User: Fold this.
Amino acid sequence: MKLTVPHMGLLSNAYTKVLREHGVDMCPPPRPSINTMNLGVRYSPEFACLPFKINLGNMIEALEGGVDTILMPGGYGPCRFGYYGVIQEQILRGLGYHFQMTRTDNPDSLGDMVKTIRDISDIKSKWDGYRVFYLILMRMAVLDSVEAMYFKMKPREINQGEAERAFDESLKIIEKATGYMKLFNAYNKIKDIFRDVKIDRTLKPLKVGILGEIFVVIEPFANMDLQRKLARMGVEVVRGVWLSDWLNDRFRFKPLKPNQNRLSRKWASPYLKYPSGGESIESVGKTVKFYKEGIDGIIHIMPFTCMPELVASTILHRISTDLNYPVLSLTFDEHVSEVNLQTRLEAFIDLLERRRKNRLASRFNSQ
Ligand code: SF4
Assistant:
């Protein structure tokens, strides 16, 4: 069995090596690219959201590369994600591909996830299934913290490119850490690497909160590398959506970390009482939270035709007016141009800078 899973940010870095050590012939597809997008767009229904198209393109690339089994999370809920695997399978069979499709029917269920791992690998005992699954979750958490450290360091670095180098080196270290103890040591080493990045501690960069639909937030190809663009413009990115948080809310592998979804419901409650699917409740709740924390503005990103985030986006306009808080909503699909994105980002950052200057001037005048 040659197994593939479509890419979603750094997720494949968390499981590929671990599963290979347990007898799975993991063949990740190529990183999403313009070729992936073209394939996905050509064979997807026009109204499908962007993650569907990128996933489908990735599956075609993997099948062309010789894989015979695709693993795709399924599920149920208020958005279309649960149907993805079923429809993608039909499309691929219609194109003449022969393969097996494995689905985790309930990605919220620990038992279901562990069963999937045991089904595809040589892991026999339940205990080993749990041990390996939790190791993958811990690796994901370390990968997320590497990204968070990068976002903190990049706008303050003194020597251009040092934060990027620290990031790349950290990924290599995590790659080799396939046991709990090794991962613990790797994490300490990574913290030292980032501590060695020379930064200007007097700098107070603008802080921008990034919220929105999880796939488009964490997959750089889907958002045209928006977060790195901001970091390179000297902005500190404060991301409100992390895959490890999503997993921790369900599987509690970081028992001391509060449940982000529950907290978001509390913060969102004056504007949205019930989650409308996807990350809508996080988008609304964390916008309120970021405002209270003094984050300079919010960029809310979503795929075109994403129903849950469309609900959130409408509410964010109201929050923005109520609190006089800058919120930029960006919608991504195959038609978005890089130049258009860059122009909108520059205009937004300009606005935030002017607001900060005005704030400082009025504080100075009132003294
Ligand atoms: S949350 Fe939005 S973009 Fe993501 S799968 Fe659901 S509808 Fe599609």
